[in-house]
Design a protein that fits this description.
Helix content is about 5%, strand content about 55%. It has 4 helices and 38 strands. The chain has a 22-stranded antiparallel β-barrel. It has a 5-stranded mixed sheet with strand order 1-6-7-4-5. It has a two-stranded antiparallel sheet with strand order 2-3.
C-alpha cells in the first residue's frame, strides 16, 4: 500500500526543503527549554503545507515528495522523521504500524500556531518522541467569519471559511476548506542513471494530483474552577502516486479519511490538574492495478482505531515546581492484504509516566532557575497479530537536566542535557508483507542531546544562538535489501553537531527575519556508509531570510531559502548541488482592509530541487490569493 512507500521515504534521510515564513516576535514560552513557536496563520497564504511552514524554526527541516498536498514530514537536528512526535492539541498522532504522521494529510489552514520542542518534551505531552515534538493548535481566537480563496500554477486552487464567537465563559470556532492541485510539471529526468547525462530527457510529472477536504469544530468553556476544551476534526484526501525518474505511475491511487476527537478537562481550583481523552479513526485504500508502484498488482484496504487518556498535574511543594504526566494509549490497525490473500492486524499499547521538578532561586542578585531533576519511566508493549515474532516490550528511563541564568528579563543563557528513546515501529519489527523486510532484532534508538545557547528578547528584537551535540545509538535507517525490498537496520553510533542562529527585527514599517542552520553529521558506527560517513539528506549549511515592508494598504515581501550540497541516499552516491530559491509577494488591502488581495511568485528563477532519492519538486509558480473579513468581525 501507499504507506509502504511513505514509510521508506520518511525513514530514509531525505533532503531539506525550507519554505520561508514569518515568525512571531514573541519569545518561546519557557526560555530554559530549547523550544520555539510558529504563527501558522500568518505564514499560510494558500497552498503551503505544514512541513514547509514548520521548517523555518531553527533545527527543523522538511521533506516532501512532489509538492503541494503530497506526503511531507519534518526532521529535527538530523533525525529520522519517525522520531518526531506530532500532536494535535496535545493528542498524539501517528500510524500504529509506522509511527509516522504525514503532515500532508493535515491541512495547514486549520491551524493557528504550533509549539516546537527540539529536545526536551513537556510532561503534558506523551513521550516516545525520540528527537523532539510538534504540538499543533487549531484556530480558536476567531470573531465573526473569514472567507478566503486562491488559485495558481499547476492547476492549484482551493478555499477556506472560518467562523467563531466568544463570550466571557464560552467560545466556539469552526472551519471548513478544500484544496486541489493537478500537480503536473515538466522536469529533466536522468532516467535513473545520474552518471550518464546522454540519456537525460524532459518528462512531465504524471498522476501527481492531490485533493483534500475537511473541517473542524472547537468548543471551550471557562468558569472559576473548571475549564473544558473539546474538538473534532475530519479530513478526507485522495491522491495519485507518481514514481521517480521516468518510471511513473499512471493509475495508482491512495485514499484516506480520518476523524480525530479530543477533550480536555482542566481543574483550576483548588488544585490544578488536566485530564485529556481522545479517539481517532482512519480508513484508507491503496489501489495499484498495473503494479507500477508496489510489488505485484494490489488493492489494499485498512482501518486504524486509536484511543487514549492522559493526566497532567502541576503543583508546588516548598518552592519546588513539580509537573507529572501519565497516560495510556491503545491502537489497532487491520485490513485486507491482497498480496498474500489474507488479512493483517497490528495492535500496540503505550503506557508512560513523566515527572519534572524545578526550582527558582530568588535569593541571588540575578534571577536563576535550576532544573535539578527530570526523569521519565516509559514503556511501549507491542502486541502484533499475524506477525511471526514474539511479544516485544520496552521499558526505559529518559533523564534530562537543565540550567537557566537570566541577567534580566531580556537576556538569558541556558544549558540542557536530554536523553530520549525511540522504540522501533511495527514496520521495522514485523515488515509489511512485501516491501519492507522484517527485523525483529532491531533495537530502540537512543539520542542524547547536549545544548547551550543564549537568547535576547525585546519587543522589536529577538536573537537566539544555540550550539548542540546529538549522540545517537542504534540510529534507525532503511537500506536496500534486494531489488524490491528494504530492511530497517541500526547504525551503531552517529553524531550530529552544529549551531542554530535566528533573529527577528521589526520597526514601524519593515521587518526582517533570518535563520541559519549549520549541521555536521557523521556516522561513527562500525559499518559506515559506503562512500564517506555523512548522514544522507543533511546539508552542512541551510537557512532562510525574509524582508517585509508595509505601507498601508500595500505590503511587499522578499524571501530566500538556501542549502549547500547534500547527499540523498545511504550510499552517498546520488547528490544535488547547492541552490537558492527566491520568492516575491505583494499584498493590497481594499475596502478599508476588509479584503486582502495577494500575488505571490515562488521560486522566481525556476531553480530545480530534488527530495526523497531524486523526487523532483515543482519549479516556478504564480499564485493569487484573496481573503475577506468584515471589519466589524475581524480576527483577534
Amino acid at each position: 500500500m501507499m504507506l509502504k512507500v511513505l514509510a521508506l521515504l520518511a525513514f530514509i534521510q531525505g533532503t531539506l526543503y525550507r519554505a520561508p515564513i514569518q515568525l512571531t516576535s514573541t519569545a518561546p514560552p519557557d526560555p530554559a527549554l530549547a523550544s520555539g513557536s510558529v504563527n501558522i496563520t500568518r505564514a499560510f497564504s494558500g497552498n503551503e503545507n505544514l512541513a514547509q511552514i514548520l521548517a523555518l524554526t531553527p533545527g527543523v527541516v522538511s521533506r516532501e515528495l512532489t509538492g503541494s498536498g503530497a506526503f511531507s514530514a519534518v526532521s529535527i537536528r538530523g533525525s529520522s522523521t519517525s522520531a518526531v512526535g506530532i500532536f494535535l492539541e496535545g493528542v498524539p498522532l501517528g500510524d500504529a504500524r509506522f509511527g509516522i504522521q504525514d503532515l500532508g494529510s493535515l491541512p495547514a489552514w486549520m491551524f493557528e500556531n504550533a509549539d516546537l520542542y527540539r529536545s526536551y518534551i513537556p510532561s503534558s505531552l506523551s513521550p516516545l518522541s525520540g528527537a523532539g515534538a510538534v504540538n499543533l493548535h487549531l484556530k480558536q481566537r476567531i470573531q465573526g467569519f473569514t472567507l478566503s480563496t486562491y488559485a495558481g500554477s499547476f492547476s492549484t486552487g482551493g478555499g477556506h471559511v472560518f467562523w467563531g464567537t466568544s463570550t466571557k465563559r464560552f467560545s466556539i470556532a469552526a472551519g471548513s476548506g478544500y484544496n486541489y492541485t493537478r500537480g503536473d510539471f515538466t522536469f529533466l529526468s536522468d532516467n535513473g542513471t545520474p552518471f550518464n547525462p546522454d540519456d537525460d530527457i524532459e518528462v512531465t510529472r504524471a498522476n501527481n494530483d492531490h485533493s483534500t477536504g475537511g473541517g473542524y469544530l472547537f468548543i471551550s468553556t471557562n468558569s472559576e474552577h473548571i475549564e473544558t476544551r473539546s474538538f473534532i476534526t475530519a479530513v478526507k484526501r485522495e491522491s495519485g502516486i507518481p514514481g521517480i525518474y521516468t518510471f511513473q505511475s499512471s493509475a495508482a491511487r491512495y485514499k484516506d479519511a480520518t476523524v480525530v476527537a479530543g477533550s480536555t478537562l482542566r481543574l483550576q481550583k483548588p488544585r490544578h490538574a488536566e485530564v485529556t481523552m481522545h479517539a481517532r479513526f482512519s480508513s484508507k485504500r491503496f489501489y495499484d492495478p498495473y503494479s507500477e508502484v508496489g510489488l505485484l498488482s494490489q488493492d489494499e484496504k485498512g482501518l486504524l482505531e486509536e484511543g487514549g487518556i492522559k493526566i497532567y498535574i502541576p503543583t508546588t511543594v516548598r518552592a519546588w515546581f513539580i509537573s507529572t504526566g501519565a497516560g495510556i494509549f491503545l491502537s489497532s490497525e487491520k485490513g485486507r492484504d491482497y498480496i498474500n490473500n489474507g488479512t493483517y492486524g497490528f495492535h500496540t499499547s503505550h503506557v508512560f509516566f513523566n515527572v519534572d521538578m524545578s526550582r527558582k532561586f530568588t535569593n541571588l542578585r540575578t534571577f536563576g532557575r535550576l532544573r535539578l531533576v527530570h526523569f521519565r519511566l516509559s514503556g511501549r508493549p507491542l502486541f502484533p497479530v499475524n506477525a511471526k515474532i514474539e511479544r516485544n516490550v520496552y521499558w526505559f528511563v529518559e533523564p534530562s537536566a537543565g540550567l537557566l541564568w537570566r541577567s534580566n528579563s531580556r537576556f538569558s543563557v541556558f544549558f540542557n542535557i536530554t536523553h530520549l528513546v525511540q522504540p522501533p515501529s511495527m514496520a521495522e519489527i514485523a515488515g509489511d508483507r512485501g516491501f519492507i523486510a522484517p527485523n525483529p532484532d532491531i533495537s530502540p534508538e537512543k539520542r542524547t542531546t547536549y545544548e547551550t545557547g543564549i537568547r535576547f528578547h525585546r519587543p522589536s528584537l529577538y536573537l537566539e544562538c544555540t550550539l548542540f551535540l546529538v549522540s545517537a545509538r542504534d540510529l534507525h535507517i532503511f537500506i536496500q535489501n534486494s531489488q524490491f525490498t528494504v530492511r530497517a537496520e541500526s547504525v551503531d553510533s552517529a553524531v550530529s553537531a552544529g549551531a542554530e542562529i535566528s533573529g527577528h527585527y521589526r520597526l514601524k514599517r519593515w521587518m526582517a527575519t533570518a535563520t541559519v542552520n549549520i549541521i555536521y553529521t557523521r556516522d561513527t558506527g562500525s559499518v559506515p556508509f559506503w562512500k564517506g560517513k555523512y548522514i544522507p539528506g543533511q546539508p552542512l549549511l541551510s537557512g532562510v531570510f525574509m524582508f517585509q515592508y508595509n505601507l498601508e494598504p500595500f505590503s511587499f515581501t522578499y524571501r530566500i531559502r538556501f542549502e549547500s550540497k547534500k547527499f540523498l541516499d545511504r550510499t552517498n552516491a546520488f547528490h544535488v548541488g547547492p541552490f537558492a530559491t527566491h520568492t516575491f509577494s505583494m499584498a493590497l488591502g481594499i475596502w478599508k482592509n476588509q479584503m486582502t488581495v495577494k500575488l505571490t511568485v515562488r521560486n522566481v528563477f525556476n531553480t530545480r530541487e530534488y527530495d526523497f532519492l531524486g523526487y523532483p519538486l515543482p519549479g516556478r509558480g504564480l499564485y493569487f490569493y484573496v481573503q475577506y473579513s468584515p471589519k466589524f468581525q475581524k480576527n483577534t
